[in-house]
Amino acid sequence: MRFITVTELKQRATQIVSQIQEGGEEMVITKNGKPVVLMRLVDEREIVLMASLEPKAVK
User: 58 in a domain, yes or no?
Assistant: First the structure.
């Protein structure tokens, strides 16, 4: 797991996403030295499952 700053993410977003996609490495994005976001590769099936578990909006 690598730690990178928000600034580095802004400068190299495409490259970072490609690294995650190709190698499956997780990256923690930090802001002011504190971890705020975990970036990782996801599987489409995982997204479908998560969406199906979300509460439905009431109309």
Answer: no
